[in-house]
Amino acid sequence: MDVRIEAGWKARLSKEFDEDYFKTLTDFVREEYRHTTIYPPASQIFRAFDLCPFDKVKVVILGQDPYHEPGQAQGLCFSVREGVPYPPSLVNIFKEISDDFGRPAPPHGDLSGWAEQGVLLLNATLTVRAHQAGSHQGHGWEAFTDAAVACLAKEKKHVVYMLWGAYAQRKGAIVDPHCNLVLKSPHPSPLSAHRGFFGNHHFRQANDYLMACGEEPIDWFK
Q1: Beta-strand (E) ranges in 42-201?
Q2: Phi and psi for 88 in degrees, rounded to 5?
Q3: Where are the beta strands (DSSP E) in 74-158?
Q4: Taking the mean position of all CA atoms in its chain, how far away is CA 144?
């Protein structure tokens, strides 16, 4: 199956595109887009991969589902277009960044600037029905994104993994913490942020690690 996705990722994930589960998944997703409102727009399903080529990945942030309200989802976990009000988890992410660096929060919620610097903003499930959180879970996306994480874990070292919440931590369990930086904390959701997300210093730790490995740090305010 020919899937439009960044060349480096395509080379590594091509066998997934020929698996039975992926054909079933794509048939399901196409039918969903035909008959109901699905987020993100179809052209942005693989945007996390397209903006962050495999060879340039330095940081991985794992989310669960795309945002399911109008105008929010844009193919990057936790990100919204410029001008869109920040969802609660993003508010808390920006609060932690601001506190970590002692600077005002980033000026907008569009995290594509992070992706272009090497931050893979990957949701476990890449599509969702409008107003129905989790509606596309269990249809195959999880297997596909597991394969993406497995490729990274196998081929790349000195990557920072930010695993927020139990779901992300289970998905990232394959990563070797001896040759990568694996950072774990509660999820930034208002339900859990006060239990250890605030004050986790993940963003500063990530940059310190990248610089120690001879990499450029991430400008989290871009």
Answers
A1: 59-63, 119-123, 128-129, 160-164, 181-185
A2: -55, -40
A3: 119-123, 128-129
A4: 13
Q: How far apart are CA 93 and CA 176, in angstroms?
A: 25
Q: Which amino acid is it at 89?
A: S
Reference 48, options 35, 57, 37, 38; nearest CA is 57
The residues facing 122 across adjacent strands are: 62
d(CA 119, CA 103): 21
Structure tokens at 69: 């309200």
Interatomic CA distance for residues 114 and 59, integer angstroms: 9
Query: What pLDDT is stored for residue 2 in this prediction?
Result: 76
Residue that is written with structure tokens 């660096």 in the block: 101
Whether 128 contacts 135, CB under 8 Å: yes
- The arrangement of strands across the sheet holding 59-63 comes to 119-123, 59-63, 160-164, 181-185
Nearest to 202 by CA among 215, 188, 216: 188
Catalytic positions are: 65
Say if residue 160's pLDDT is above 80. Answer: yes
pLDDT tens for residues 194-209?
999 999 999 999 999 9
The answer to whether residue 87 scores a pLDDT higher than 80 is yes
Q: Among residues 78, 70, 69, which one has the least CA distance to residue 109?
A: 78
Q: What is the pTM of this model?
A: 0.97
Q: What is the DSSP letter of 105?
A: P
